[in-house]
Design brief:
Strand content of chain A: 15-25%
Distance between the termini of chain A: 16 Å
Radius of gyration of chain B: 26 Å
Shape of chain A: globular
Number of strands of chain A: 11
Number of strands of chain B: 28
Distance between the termini of chain B: 65 Å
Strand content of chain B: 15-25%
Oligomer: heterodimer
Order of helices and strands of chain A: EHEEHEHEEEEHEEEHH
Helix content of chain A: 10-25%
Structural class of chain A: alpha/beta
């Protein structure tokens, strides 16, 4: 599977996700400069965490205007896989690829800590190797990760089962105390209706090795790898 | 065009004694300037002298003392004198690190002061060719209930996070203390470590006559003019008015600058590079010329400006952030510019290297500054300032143990200590810092030391920062020793051997004999500890004039130490792991209470002498811990420090992220209970081992001549300290977890 990690000016977790894909998961991966075009042979585009353009305006509000984003929108509309992590999730919401918005944390402070997440749906290429209801322990680190959507949008998200991850406590309950940022309905990650674009606030790439304290983040990447058509072909040929 | 420049010069104020004084220069210093130049300086030149001869840039009061610190060691690649220190970590890689103070700006404007402190130290590290991978900070605030403390604390923490998080460098650890001594003069010391290839370390040198001097990064504004001079003055009520001398940080621009500089450093285009920190363009260009044994000529009208109408004086002295100065190879200017253009940054040739050892600045072709480089550097004044032990020390150090009533209920005393903001959990602080970005953090904040892995290398690095101002106040020599040995002990607790340290020496005015005495004593103490433990000082900074209305802060050296773990995955954490493990105390408890947190919190006293220290015993205990950790014997290890043994044990029970776990401890030493539980005797580490491993640990301890004693067993839901105190671990955790946060929130 071929991965492209977009480097916006101000991306910080681009190295983290690149390293996780390349060194830990032995994937073919390249950095994509925000001023360039999207190469034709990419299977999955990752929008990494960080502070694109410093996020001095609304988070992700500038990032969506980067030249490469036109190609990403086009790529997504053709069914291409797009994963947005943290700032990447914010850019996907700003560019209209995902519904809703991410606003300032309820605490008004940046928060960096491990949280529990419950996998709500598994019929997506991002969660297929997890079990429904499975708990993942991943870190969050953001100042504006409070997910918000109007009632009609939230209704649609539920109807189409687009909510893929919720913040929960260690027993799997979506309590207010388990919600690190005040997100609506404890939402931590959503996909689009076509289920090929996924954004989440937690960082799977920072929980992908034993030495980092958790390997739960691998579930997201391995789901993508296992659902890749190239992978299937290879397995079939073998 | 020459006329414009000439006009500017004419419009400059004439030099009067008042103007000289306003620049922080003494009459003697002014006479020396006239003598060195062979004429009166003009206003711009006076500004250049004032910043270069400021305490902050020239180290004129501290230099004779700093020479006593050991700076060499087998891992040292670069000691003090460059932008940061460099040590070899194996595998062709080096750790590049430094700590620096940003105290005065942070008191005046906490968010921006702290943020630009982080920005400045990051530039010091990446200017050497290293990618920053971890930051620490050491903070001191006034009493937690002082009306300004919460505002300052919130602002400083948000500023550190705002800058560090945005630029993508994790803040992996730090320390915070609260004491009345810092009510009107907080301390913000920021540390960054970067990784570089040993054969690609860059230095701040201007060499090769004719080579272009290139300005890169953000544009220059009027912010921060005379920041270096401000940092060399004491505070008064007037300080609030100095807000405009605090710079404003732009971490996004610095992120671009960081990436562009690291890209540039992969090429062979540059000769030297230096960040523009305190005293901005002036100090960076002067220092580069000085280190390269060269001269430099600048055309100030080419400097990219953010504001109109800036004078040569303002351009030279601005401390606008996110700027670097570099010397490129002649004829390669366009290649340099191309790299910066990719990141949408300015790169402008503003001068050239000369061979006349003269510092010259032109404005539209008219010379506005002409000073021999040496006059600004090696000829700068050096003072052997008077130093004297104040007579009041005798009374301060006197502590009659019999006059201190032992509390009837030691459990209550333990609760008071766990609730002290100096001991309670600092989670409210560090959860505002991204401590994970770059995915290297193995052990984050809240342990004795942080541990990071280095991708592609089996070794890991441990980082810690430590310093106890109260100990130094009570005995600066012993305090200096303790600051170093505790940092080394913290490293030993995670299983790392020290490679080197960087220090921030925060003191009052050097013009006070008692302060100079404290300074000199602290240096002597640090030296003795560094020599015995074989730890070189590779970088650091001195911050004097930390006083307000004539009252100095506690003398506060903060020591940031970096250590090497042979294998990153062989780290040890402080927290108890499993029922049935044996709890072992390495080291010995003495009957002493001087300078302890207990004495302060429970008895309201800051008195006595700090804990006794025997450097051979310290070394034996640390070696035992390191060897046992290396053999994989230790389930946990935690340094005994503030709050003594009882607090250390409580932290072992409740400090981890898992469910708290209890312990049954029996203490048999024949000393009074409060000293046994809360005394801060040095050279002690609490470790746990599996019962089957206790013999192997004993063998190591015997060989190192370190005392060791099995004091109990992990298990249950209570921490029981027989026969003195006991507490349920749930209650202990709740008190400890809330101690700081509830006070900040005012609940």
């Amino acid at each position: 599977m071929r991965w492209g990690v977009i480097v916006f000016p101000g991306s910080c977790d681009d190295h983290d996700v690149y390293d996780c894909l390349k060194r830990v998961l032995k994937q073919k991966v390249e950095f994509l400069w925000h001023k360039d075009r999207l190469p034709a042979n990419i299977d999955c585009v990752v929008l990494p965490g960080g502070f694109s353009y410093g996020d001095y305006l609304r988070c992700g509000a500038m990032g969506r205007f980067s030249p490469i984003m036109q190609d990403v929108i086009e790529f997504a509309s053709r069914g291409g896989l797009v994963l947005g992590i943290c700032n990447g999730f914010q850019i996907l919401c700003e560019s209209g690829l995902l519904p809703g918005a991410l606003v300032r944390n309820g605490s008004l402070q940046f928060v960096c800590k491990p949280v529990y997440l419950r996998v709500e749906e598994t019929d997506t290429p991002f969660t297929s190797s997890a079990k429904k209801g499975q708990l993942l322990r991943l870190p969050v680190k953001h100042g504006e990760g409070c997910y918000f959507a109007d009632p009609a949008t939230l209704e649609r998200l539920k109807e189409n089962r687009q909510i893929l991850l919720r913040y929960v406590d260690s027993k799997g309950r979506p309590t207010p105390a388990a919600n690190p940022n005040g997100s609506l309905d404890n939402i931590a990650g959503v996909c689009n209706e076509a289920r090929n674009v996924f954004g989440l606030m937690p960082h799977p790439e920072d929980a992908s090795e034993k030495i980092l304290g958790s390997e739960d983040g691998l579930k997201i990447f391995s789901s993508l790898i296992e659902s890749s058509p190239r992978q299937e072909k290879k397995a079939w040929a073998g | 065009m020459g006329g414009l420049g000439a006009q500017k010069i004419i419009s400059e104020p004439a030099i009067t004694p008042e103007i000289v004084a306003a620049h922080g220069l003494s009459d003697d210093e002014y006479r020396k300037i006239v003598q060195l130049l062979g004429r009166e300086p003009n206003y711009t030149e006076l500004g250049v002298f004032s910043v270069m001869w400021s305490e902050h840039c020239s180290y004129k009061s501290s230099r004779p003392h700093l020479k006593r610190l050991p700076t060499k060691g087998k891992a040292v690649i670069q000691g003090p004198g460059e932008n940061a220190g460099v040590v070899d970590i194996g595998g062709g890689l080096a750790a590049v690190f430094k700590m620096e103070s940003h105290n005065h700006p942070s008191f005046i404007e906490p968010y921006q002061g702290a943020a630009t402190g982080v920005g400045g130290i990051l530039r010091d590290v990446f200017t050497m060719g290293a990618r920053p991978v971890a930051s620490l900070n050491s903070l001191r605030f006034g009493a937690i209930d002082h009306p300004r403390t919460r505002y300052l604390l919130s602002g400083v923490v948000a500023g550190i996070g705002g800058y560090g998080n945005c630029i993508g460098v994790p803040t992996v650890g730090g320390e915070i203390y609260f004491d009345e001594s810092y009510n009107a003069n907080i301390l913000v010391n920021a540390f960054t470590l970067g990784i570089a290839e040993t054969r690609r370390i860059f230095k701040g040198r201007a060499e090769g006559a004719g080579n272009p001097v290139i300005y890169v990064g953000a544009k220059t504004g009027r912010d921060g003019i005379h920041g270096a001079t401000m940092a060399s003055e004491s505070f008064s009520d007037e300080s609030e008015k100095k807000r405009p001398t605090v710079q404003v940080g732009d971490p996004f621009t610095e992120k671009l600058l960081l990436e562009a500089c690291l890209a540039l450093m992969k090429t062979d285009l540059i000769v030297g590079i230096q960040d523009m920190g305190a005293a901005g363009l002036t100090s960076s260009s002067v220092e580069m010329a000085d280190r390269g044994g060269a001269g430099i000529e600048l055309e100030l009208s080419r400097v990219p400006l953010r504001e109109t109408g800036m004078t040569p004086y303002e351009i030279l002295l601005s401390e606008s952030q996110e700027r670097m100065l570099l010397v490129a190879k002649s004829g390669r200017e366009d290649e340099v510019k191309k790299i910066f253009e990719r990141w949408d940054l300015d790169a402008v040739v503003i001068g050239r290297v000369t061979d006349d050892r003269m510092y010259r600045a032109l404005y539209n072709g008219v010379e506005v500054v002409r000073i021999p480089v040496a006059a600004l550097t090696s000829e700068a004044p050096v003072y052997q300032r008077p130093a004297e032990r104040p007579a009041s020390m005798d009374e301060l150090q006197r502590l009659d143990m019999d006059s201190i009533p032992a509390p009837a209920d030691l459990t209550t005393a333990l609760k008071l200590l766990l609730d002290s903001p100096n001991i309670a959990s600092k989670e409210w602080v560090y959860r505002q810092y991204d401590h994970l970005v770059r995915s290297n953090t193995v052990v984050g904040p809240s342990a004795d030391a942080a541990v990071i892995r280095i991708k592609g290398l089996k070794q890991g690095l441990a980082l810690t920062v430590d310093g106890n101002g109260r100990y130094c106040y009570l005995d600066p020599y012993v305090g200096g020793i303790l600051a170093v040995v505790e940092a080394a002990r913290n490293l030993a607790c995670v299983g790392a051997r020290p490679l080197g340290l960087s220090d921030c020496l925060n003191f009052g005015s050097p013009e006070r004999a008692e302060v100079m005495w404290q300074f000199s004593q602290v240096i002597d103490g640090m030296r003795d500890a560094c020599v015995t433990l074989e730890i070189p000082v590779v970088s650091g900074n001195v911050s004097f004039y930390n006083e307000t209305d004539g009252v100095p802060i506690f003398p506060t050296p903060t020591i940031a130490m970096v250590g090497l773990l042979p294998r990153a995955e062989r780290y040890v954490t402080p927290w108890f792991k499993a029922e049935g493990d044996l709890v072992v105390l390495l080291g010995r408890t003495r009957e002493e209470l001087g300078g302890s947190e207990y004495l302060k919190i429970v008895h309201g006293l800051v008195k006595g002498t700090p804990p006794w220290i025997d450097l051979r015993l310290e070394r034996a205990v640390q070696q035992t811990c390191l060897k046992a950790a290396g053999k994989g014997l230790l389930r946990s290890a935690h340094d005994v420090s503030d709050g003594g043994l009882a607090v250390a044990l409580a932290e072992c029970c409740v400090g981890g992220s898992d469910k708290p776990i209890g312990a049954r401890i029996e203490l048999r030493d024949m000393i009074r209970g409060d000293a046994l539980l809360f005394g801060e005797s040095q050279s002690r580490i609490v470790v746990t081992v599996k019962p089957t491993d206790v013999g192997r640990l004993q063998q190591i301890a015997d060989k190192e001549a370190a005392p060791m004693q099995v004091i109990g067993e992990v298990g249950g839901s209570r921490l029981s300290l027989q026969p003195f105190a006991q507490i349920s671990v749930e209650e202990a955790r709740s008190i400890w977890a809330q101690g700081l946060e509830r006070r900040i929130k005012g609940t």
